Amino acid sequence: MRTQIVAGNWKMNCDLDESQHLLNALKQKDFSKSNAEVIVAPPFTNLYAAHKTLENSSIKISSQNINENDKGAYTGEISPSMLKSVGVEYAIIGHSERRAIYEESDDLLAKKVTAALKHDLKVMFCIGEDLEKRKADKHFEVVEEQLKNGLFHIDASEMKDVVIAYEPVWAIGTGETASPEQAQEIHEHIRKILAKQYSQEIADQTSILYGGSVKPNNAKEIFAKKDVDGGLIGGASLDADSFAEIVMSF
Ligand SMILES: O=C(CO)COP(=O)(O)O
What's the Enzyme Commission number for this chain (predicted)? Predict the structure, then answer.
């Protein structure tokens, strides 16, 4: 059975006080009633405090990005081992905002994946097409290319530490979601690509999350789909009640 996951990507939101407030509110929630693994991804500056606050909690911590190098003259960057040292277990890699705004290429993302795995960080690898590609019916090809170029250099044995997040760019922060059927269709396609590249067993074991305007009122319907193993939540993860309700959708 695949791990079901609900992860909150806080993006560039929450100063330290706000972060602690949100985490303490999440800690009060009884997630034991949900089958999902719960992950939060606060900004870098809040990670260590988050780790301390969540020490006796089942909630795991992710970074939103990493640098691909171990250490050295990379001003302003954060290495995988630094993240490990402050209690981070996951790294989000290839978010569409990093691809689009910071021009992160497939080649760079492939290096980041390698670096994360080398330092025992699990990877949440994001893929997804923009509106233009969706309208041109090219979404299947886009995700296949993104997987091939950014992820498929790793061995089958490393896939146990990888989660895929399908996030159509046109649904991020827009209030527009992929329909449950659209999500199922492309998640099934992604699983087929994984089976072709690695094996059916690996495809069946890899969690594939949906991201893009997931809210308490639509999570259940989307998560009910066979190949949707959870969600990567943006806006709704900044409110403890909304995020908890999404977690409880499992
Ligand atoms: O980008 C996302 C999560 O990584 C999704 O963001 P929203 O849930 O705000 O659409």
Answer: 5.3.1.1
Q: Whose CA is nearest to atom 8 of ligand 1?
A: 234
8 is known to lie in a ligand binding site: no
194 and 203 Cβ atoms separated by less than 8 Å: yes
CATH class of 5-247: alpha beta
User: Low-confidence residues of the chain, pLDDT below 70?
Assistant: none
Rounded CA-CA distance 45/42 in Å is: 8
Question: What is the percent of the chain where pLDDT is above 70?
Answer: 100
Query: Does the annotation mark 221 as catalytic?
Result: no
For residue 6, give both structure tokens: 């609900």
**Which phi-psi region, left, alpha or beta, contains residue 212 (left: φ > 0; alpha: ψ -120 to 50)?**
left
Query: How many other CB atoms are there within 10 angstroms of residue 10's CB atom?
Result: 22
Report the nearest atom of ligand 1 relative to the CA of 213: 10
- The DSSP secondary structure of 181-232, one letter per residue, reads HHHHHHHHHHHHHHHHHT-HHHHHHS-EEEESS--TTTHHHHHTSTT--EEE
